[in-house]
Known about the structure:
By secondary structure, the chain is of the alpha/beta class. It is 39% helix and 15% strand. The longest helix has 18 residues, at 77-94.
Amino acid sequence: MSKEATFMSCGERHRLSRDRPHVMGILNVTPDSFSDGGKHALGDAALRRAAEMLREGADIIDVGGESTRPGATPVGVQQELDRVVPIVERLTHELGALVSVDTSSPEVMTAITKAGAGMINDVRSLRRPGALEAAAASGLPVCLMHMVGEPDNMQNDPRYERPIEEEVAVFLEQKIARCRGAGMDGDRLLVDPGFGFAKTLAHNLRLMNRLEYLQHLGYPLLVGTSRKGMIGRTLSREVDERLYGGLALTTLAVSKGAWIIRTHDVAASADAVGMTSAVLKEGK
């Protein structure tokens, strides 16, 4: 994002201020999410959960129609469209929400743009055929994430020649250059270091400890650590016991420059983000 920009345009109706960090609430409309396993997969349940997250302080609702947990297998394009497009339409039209869609499929990117979504969040960084062109044509902001391999094999002994923060930075620089080469304006791009994606616990801990290294890229930073295995393995906690560890990571991430925090636990995270931001700004 350019130094002059004070906000990011997200479709025709929404703008996100770059002067404060934001909370992105996770809405999985899949039957096999690692965390909420289909709890909000149906339309009315998904709409109720989204409305609840907005009340709790979410600035963005991130809709996912394909699980990207470790070991997950891809879903068909039509199945993803059937899961995602109707809820995007309802969230935008009935709730007026700023909706991001977690997708790697160019057909889905095109469809959710027409449905009113305001952001594309691609764990594969526009690697699928046609994704770069679809994202560029959408006019929407795009989040590029570090991941090597695919969800079904990314955790098969991930190793890197350089320190993880350098590997992530080089990877993201390459993806940014590819997007800029396709004509995408820099003000439309943000980056995600990909905690839990093709990384060991040691990688994840080092990356969080050195997260500010990525600030030199010059692009807004999205961080998602909510309920992830790095918390479970460090603290010996099951998925439903990871809130407090997640809030610690949220506070660290914001203090190191994160602009968007992606989370399942919106109310608690919104408080953590707001309090950390107030301290960093000394209440200004």
